[in-house]
Amino acid sequence: PQFKIEIITFFRKSSRGDFVFSADRLIRLVVEEGLNQLPYTECTVTTPTGHKYEGVKFEKGNCGVSIMRSGEAMEQGLRDCCRSIRIGKILIQSDEETQRAKVYYAKFPPDIYRRKVLLMYPILSTGNTVIEAVKVLVEHGVQPSVIILLSLFSTPHGAKSIIQEFPEITILTTEVHPVAPTHFGQKYFGTD
């Protein structure tokens, strides 16, 4: 609990530069763990000095999908680890009075139904936005079992809502706590 209070205080009171630095570090950690969940094959790599090394490489067919706007903050962390990964986007707005999420835009690789999806959304509060995003992915032929949600902070209610709707989905987060920091995108992009 004390750690959570410190994180929320940090989100509110830090300079934008410190905030972005810390957020990028957390993003990188959750992206790397998400990549660890993807299927890979063994391969032999020849080093520049001619030595053989037994390593691994990702199987083809992975992509990222960011839920705009805050999810876009996670795209660079994914690209830093996988330079050529395809990234789709979904724009979802929640009605401020009813909290109902509505999809306004969705653009994916045409073969997304064959891919494993890293769904990026940093702050998971109610779960409504992510549920709508997963519904759109399912409409495009993606099975929930191949979706990995990458989140920085999640409430127990939000995670439970998603799992109740889509029990096959994988959720990766750095923190589960009843209070999630808000306005992540505004602070990250400097529009607060």
How much helix, percentage-wise, in residues?
A: 25-40%
Major sheet details: 6 strands, mixed
Distance between the termini: 26 Å
User: What's the tally of helices?
Assistant: 6
Strand content of the residues, in percent?
25-35%
Number of domains: 1
Radius of gyration: 17 Å
Text of the CATH class: Alpha Beta
Main sheet: which strands, in order across? 5-4-3-6-8-10
Q: Average the pLDDT over all residues and give the rounded result.
A: 87
GO cellular component, one term: nucleus
Keywords: Cytoplasm, Glycosyltransferase, GTP-binding, Nucleotide-binding, Nucleus, Transferase
Protein name: Uracil phosphoribosyltransferase homolog
InterPro entries: PRTase-like, PRTase_dom
Describe this structure in words.
This protein is an alpha/beta fold and 192 residues long. The chain has one domain: Rossmann fold. It contains six helices and eleven strands. Helix 2 packs across helix 3 (75-81). One of its GO terms (cellular component) is cytoplasm.
Element layout with pairings:
Blueprint: H1 2-13, H2 16-36, E1 40-46, E2 52-58, E3 62-68, H3 75-81, E4 86-94, E5 101-107, E6 116-120, E7 123-124, H4 128-139, E8 147-150, E9 153-154, H5 156-165, E10 170-172, E11 175-176, H6 184-189
Helix pairs in contact: 2-3
Protein name: Uracil phosphoribosyltransferase homolog
GO molecular function, one term: glycosyltransferase activity
InterPro entries: PRTase-like, PRTase_dom
